[in-house]
Amino acid sequence: MGASLRTWSARGMPDSNSSPIFYRCSLAWREIMEWHSLIIKNIRRNLRRYLGYLLASTVAILCFCMFIIFAANPEVAHGKAPSSARVLFTISQGIIAIFALFFIFYFHAALIRLRNKEFGLLLTLGVTRRQLGLMIFYESLFIGVLALVAGIGLGILASIPFTQAVSALLELPRSISFNLQPAALLTTLLLFGTIFLLDALLISLRVSLRTPRMLLLGARERQRPPRASWWKVLFGLLSLAAAYSMATMFSNLLIFNALPIIALTIIGTYFLFSQIFVMLLNALRRRSLAGIRLLTVSRLAYRMSDYSRMITTVTTLSAIVLVGMASVFGVQQSMAASMLKLTPFSLEYISGPGQTFPLSAQQVRATLSKHHFTLQEELATPVLTGLLTHQAKELPVTVLSLSQYRHLRGSLLQLYPAWGDNLDQASSLANGQAYFYAPPYVSDLSSVVDGKYITLKTDKLLQSLTIETGHAMVFNMDLPDLSSFLVVINDTTYAQMDKVVAPNLHKQIYSFAVQEWRQMRPAVDELRSSLTGQQQAQFSEIYTPYNANMQTFSLTLFATFFVSLLFFLAVGISLYFKLFTQQEEDRRQFRALERVGIQQKEGQSVLTLELLLLFFIPVLIAIIHAIFAMIDLAHQLELQGWDATPIWGAFAIVCACYLGCIALFFLAAHINYYRQLKAAVAPG
């Protein structure tokens, strides 16, 4: 590099008196080859730096390619897969594209800043700014092309098992065949090609506008002692307190609060690391610390100040992964438990006087027996339909006798012993008394019935009742012409009403509980095949909605896994990148420390503690953020009448897996980093 790049093309080029076209082509070709050689050497020399960036870019393209190939599949587009699958993968494409845009622009710029000294040296040796800009531009494009080729190639290969996995999750009778649409590849190529091109242009322009002095001395600026500001500390604490309060106290306004909560959490996290932790560490430094302890605390104070932006990014990405995976996994588990509470019977149909319903209890039993399903419970419950009048408002209700309600409750408790708290126990009732039971998704009973007195209207009969309120769900919620709101009266009153009420208000509910309800698709299909469209509405079963929801959540979990993988890679690359940038300074510091008597074992303990905090403090803060997000989610589920308990088990599993992955990455990074540092510090 002792000679200027401007003179490279002057050696060995053809005589200028020869053909002008031949002369110009030869000159251009030689310049291209010189640039090609220089770019290849630079990439080889900086391969370790660029490896993480190249890997994450490739994985982002791979995931985007898989999703878009599946969404563009003609069989998916024409309805062989549910429309929700296509919408879900389209949304995933958008998330990946936004991630790629942020990741490529942010991390590539950070990688280029590491080479400022190299670029400043090239300018000092005679390379023009234009040549330097072109070199960086071609280099960036070359890396982008590598990522594109690898990502698209691997994406095509991975799309085959990906399509088969989605078909299995959807439980399709015939798998979706793999189909590679050129439009999908073209979209991937254009999107990521544009991102890489814009990134190369911006990076090359930014570097070419800097002077050699800025590039050479930029990294040597004197490091200021870490100091914390009281008002920034207070602002950070208030931001986090406001975010946590909004998440836990105003769950019903999540649509309006989501963006403010996220913004306040990120701001509070930044000030937590840059101000609050620095203030605490400075307070420790002022205590009577000496030796290794003082060194450790001092280095941590500087690290927290220097790394605050990176640690905030890592914390935010980690919180997104934890909340995303735990939410989808937890809601899937919660849905499975809540579906039973909203649809307590495996099969149920409604019949009334004068109605000819093609199914009979005997036919249902025969069909279940034919497919080897175990019938646990069979009930036939007479009910009346009526209107509850309260404060000039009318609400359709289902009227039950006390004995029938107790019989239903007892049967459900035999099926689901843990449901004692979900089905209110009705004691004896006198004339003029009743129980009013709302379904579990109605959390605020006062919004339905405010007071203890109602009027029950059945046909032309009006009765004033004193009520006690509670929650109970004894019939499937999706039965038409049957309200999920129950009014339970004593048997005498019910018998009197039964005699005078018009026949069309009498209903008979046939309920069946099947042990293997998660696998009863053959029986459901056979029973539904004997019903017309209108009759289908009078038939309720748990398998179809449960299976549809499970498919949706399984697909969502599947897609979330790939998106979370990208975010985890970004977390790992952020941490490793910051370690790499600090390596040269650590070498100088540990050389100086060895001269004053610090042993290698002591230096290793300082470094180990520092890396432990660097890796795990962001994750622990992210877990705290995620806990408040999960509290908000639990409130949302409870407002819908869902069981929120399973989300905490799912959250614990996700946190354990994430901590395990971070621990493995920490061990690998610690061993590798300390080995390199030890080799650099070693004498000679």
Search tags:
alpha+beta, six-stranded mixed beta barrel, disordered N terminus
Structural description of this entry:
This is ABC transporter permease. Keywords: Cell membrane, Membrane, Transmembrane, Transmembrane helix. It comes from Ktedonosporobacter rubrisoli. The chain has 684 residues and is of the alpha+beta class. It folds into three domains: 176 residues, no CATH class; 248 residues, no CATH class; 198 residues, no CATH class. The protein is built from 19 helices and nine strands. Strands 2-3-7-4-6-5 form a six-stranded mixed barrel. It starts with 19 loop residues before the first helix and ends with a helix.
List the helices and strands and how they pair.
Layout (H helix, E strand, L loop, with lengths): L19 H26 L1 H25 L2 H4 L5 H32 L1 H9 L4 H42 L11 H27 L3 H6 L12 H20 L4 H32 L5 H52 L4 E5 L9 H10 L4 E16 L2 E9 H14 L17 E6 L14 E6 L2 E11 L14 E4 L1 H10 L5 E9 L6 H9 L3 H4 L2 E3 L1 H53 L4 H40 L6 H36 L3
Parallel strand pairs: 3-7, 4-6
Antiparallel strand pairs: 1-8, 1-9, 2-3, 2-5, 2-8, 4-7, 5-6
Give me the Rg, rounded: 34 Å
Strand fraction equals 5-15%
Extended strand count: 9
Which sheet architecture does the biggest sheet show? 6 strands, mixed, barrel
State the end-to-end CA separation.
Answer: 27 Å
State the share of residues found in helices, binned by percent: 55-70%
Q: What is the total number of structural domains?
A: 3
Average pLDDT over all residues: 80
Q: Which regions have little confidence, pLDDT < 50, spanning 5+ residues?
A: 1-14
Strand numbers in spatial order across the main sheet:
2-3-7-4-6-5
Transmembrane segments: 50-71, 91-114, 135-163, 183-209, 230-255, 261-284, 310-331, 553-577, 611-635, 647-668
Main location: membrane
Keywords: Cell membrane, Membrane, Transmembrane, Transmembrane helix
Subcellular location: Cell membrane
